[in-house]
Request: fold
Amino acid sequence: MRVYYPMKELISNFPTQVLEAIQIGKKASAIVKIGKYNKVLISGLGGSGIGASIVADYCFDILSVPLVVNKGYFIPKNVDAETLFIACSYSGNTEETLHAAAEAKKRKASIVCITSGGLLESLAKKHKLPLLSIPPGMPPRSCLGYSMVQLLFILKHSGVLKSHFEKELMDGLTLIAKENKNIHKEASSIAKKLLNKFVAIYANIGYEGLAESDTRQQLNENSKVLAWNNVIPEMTHNEIVGWKKKQEEVVVLFCYGKEDYAKNIKRLQYLKKVIKKYTSSSHDIIIKGNSFWQKALYFIHLSDWVSVYLADLNGNSTLEVKVIDQLKKEMSLK
Reply:
């Protein structure tokens, strides 16, 4: 059953959500067991997949085993008994994730489930799989704090992740509180620039999950606008060539941190010079923070507020996703 909280209330509650998620995650040590895993596969789509993409960026250079995010029905052939498979579906009824989990079970993977209920919860209870239950009744895209943090604790309790992410998360919440007024001011300013525009989000590598899975999805679902994203340096080898004529209907968001790799900053600066020949609308989002999770929580909170302020300017409901609801009805037809 859905409980329709106002999106502004949900976003305001993001710091509290992260704190609650940390407590849930700590308790999971009793059910998630250490194992000898040679790979990790996380399955989740839409709002339930946002956290997986961000966690994958975080783990890129600190895990000794590969971590892959799966956003479809099927799983790689190499999934086996030495795979840690994490099924993440907020509603518990995401058909792609359920299908992937069933395949993982056939392959005898070690499965852990994150959900607020539904069929995934039933699957976990039926087969006595580790289950991390998160609060129900909200749009999945507003529950990133819950799902993202649970992924981190599953990796920690399973022995795969050995970093001290909890302190970084707490420092991130401190940064959000300190920058609260500035976040709202910048979010409102950015939203005004995005009004009646298509949005291109260009981020330095390392922020791909944040730009794609959080910023773009929130603009799509909350603001009801078309947006796309790409990452530097990859896009400077291809998409940059597409900027060959005036595109005043497009506004570009350049997302980066001041301490990013110097070569990527240099590429971004050149990219800005090229793009400014073809559109007068752009904005730099400088991601604040001294660690991955400080930057991530700051960027998430800023992006969420941008999407809400833009929805207000457009006169759109942040909660309405009728086209997705209709798709789910059609997919359920025999």
Q: What stands out?
A: The radius of gyration is 20 Å. The longest helix spans residues 292-314. The beta strands are 39-43, 67-70, 83-89, 110-115, 131-133, 198-204, 227-232, 250-256, 282-286.
